[in-house]
Design a protein that fits this description.
Blueprint (H helix, E strand, L loop, with lengths): L3 H4 L6 H15 L7 E7 L5 H6 L3 E6 L2 E7 L3 H6 L5 E2 L1 H4 L24 H14 L4 E8 L5 E7 L11 E5 L8 H15 L5 H9 L1 E5 L4 H9 L53 H12 L2 E9 L3 E4 L11 H19 L4 E4 H4 L7 H9 L3 E6 L13 H24 L1 H4 L6 H22 L10
Parallel strand pairs: 7-8, 7-9, 9-12, 10-11
Antiparallel strand pairs: 1-3, 1-4, 2-3, 5-6, 6-8, 10-12
Helix pairs in contact: 7-14, 11-14
The structure holds zinc ion.
């Protein structure tokens, strides 16, 4: 894919360049890691209290080790609490360890070919100008810092609501997962650019309403670009003076189900917020879903190469497990055919780690639609983790286009069956909450400890 917005902006860049050079120096010397260390612990330890008592940011599991990022000032406290850990920062910081063997690929400039909020905004506007008959830009809501949450609708007769199934591709829940914005955006661009030349694309666009919501967390993204590359949450100022709510733990289904799949601690990377939908960004998605006839959804994240489906809040199959298995296997096969990369498929809780209050569980529970989380490449932290290179963008897009087209095709073919009469929303919600209360009680008494892995 070409990156038009970049080429088109060269003329206005001299002043901006000076700023970039200045900022690159002040940030690239330590990659924003100066006050933090990466530590590893044995993953078989009971780490529940560690995560509850210290603001550690789980990054990944590798072999027998689990890696956390933590501010230096907490290291002594963690040691005194009896945890034995190894310092691993040098392995992940090319500045500290030149010539190290790990391929950690920081891309150039501040955000290089990746989109900032403003760059995304101008690209979306340019797409609407270029393809006015098949696309329209909507604002679903405002972020805390008053940025727009954009949705690009792609369909024939785009200004009218037709009796067509809707499907949505979302990205950018987590600020540091820059690639997760690029993929839905490029899928949208591909549909627009090939509408007149490709019969299959024309059929999909004519038969469905496709919604691209590339950036759920614009404030977090800007903070990740300008201040701290590994920032994850939104920019909520919490009651304890810390910042950020994890938007992908703030949805209303199974919210706060336990403190393994999300954290009650405001300074934690997966802090769930004070209540479900406490954040304007998740509220915008909630309103959008209540106003549209969604039939399927993919929420892009990074990293780990996996296609995940509900449940995430507990390791248990939904009644639609066979359908989820079938769809995720088909998508993984399509991905494999492009670059030979293997994406693991499975229930989120079983394949990755427990999450509660996340988007996919919520979309499935309340709207009864297939909802997936696709964790994009790389596979692990050693291959870049949250930091993809610029060259990755097109490669990852190419392999994720066929499964996206497949799912659009699927919602068109299964439209009648996938949209049952819904029980009234609030009735359904109360029922689920009642059920959950019982499960929570059961679970507390069993002392179950789920898998704890890095939050993505
Ligand atoms: Zn994520």
């Amino acid at each position: 894919m070409t990156r038009n917005n970049y080429n088109g902006k060269k003329g206005s860049r001299p002043i901006f360049l000076v700023v970039i050079i200045f900022l690159s120096f002040s940030y690239s010397t330590d990659n924003g890691l100066s006050d933090t260390e990466i530590i590893s612990l044995n993953k078989n330890l009971d780490l529940r209290d560690l995560a509850l008592n210290f603001p550690v940011d789980p990054l990944m599991v590798e072999g027998q080790k689990i890696y956390f990022q933590v501010e230096k000032k907490h290291l002594e406290g963690i040691r005194q609490a009896g945890y034995f850990f190894s310092l691993e920062t040098h392995r992940f910081n090319p500045q500290i360890s030149p010539g190290h063997s790990i391929k950690l690929r920081w891309q150039g400039g501040l955000n290089g070919a990746y989109h900032s909020y403003k760059e995304l905004e101008s690209e979306l506007q340019a797409l609407v100008r270029a393809y006015p008959s098949i696309t329209r830009l909507y604002i679903l809501g405002k972020s805390l810092e008053n940025r727009n949450i954009y949705a690009l609708k792609i369909s024939d007769n785009v200004s009218t609501r037709e009796n067509e199934p809707a499907i949505t591709f979302l990205g950018g829940h987590h600020a540091r997962e820059w690639i997760s914005l690029e993929i839905p955006l490029l899928i949208g661009k591909h549909l627009l650019e090939n509408y007149t030349s490709d019969d299959r694309i024309k059929f999909l666009v004519d038969s469905a309403e496709i919604w691209v919501i590339p950036l759920v967390n614009p404030d977090g993204l800007q903070y990740s670009i300008l201040n701290y590359r590994l920032w994850r949450k939104n920019r909520r100022l919490n009651y304890d003076g810390s910042y950020g709510v994890d938007l992908n733990r703030n949805y209303s289904f199974a919210w706060a189900y336990d403190s393994l799949g999300s954290s009650p601690n405001p300074s934690s990377a997966d802090y769930r917020g004070l209540e479900p939908f406490s954040e304007p960004e998740t509220r915008a998605i909630n309103n959008f879903f209540h106003n549209h006839n969604l039939a399927a959804a993919i929420s892009y994240h990074s990293f780990s190469q996996s296609i995940l489906y509900p449940w995430g809040y507990l390791d248990q199959a939904t009644e639609d497990e066979p359908l989820f298995q079938q769809l995720s296997a088909a998508m993984a096969e399509l991905i494999y055919q492009v670059n030979g990369r293997i994406y693991e498929t499975g229930r989120a809780a079983a394949a990755l780690y427990l999450t509660n209050g996340d988007f996919a569980d919520w979309a499935y529970a309340f709207f009864q639609i297939p909802a997936f989380t696709i964790e994009l490449p790389p596979l692990d932290l050693a291959q870049g983790g949250f930091v993809n290179s610029e060259a990755d963008i097109d490669e990852i897009f190419q392999e994720n286009l066929p499964p996206a087209l497949f799912l659009i095709d699927w919602v068109i073919a299964n439209y009648e069956e996938t949209i049952p009469e819904r029980p009234p929303y609030f009735y359904l919600k109360r029922e689920l909450e009642k059920r959950l209360e019982i499960i929570v009680k059961d679970r507390k008494s069993s002392g179950f400890l789920g898998k704890e892995q890095g939050v993505k």
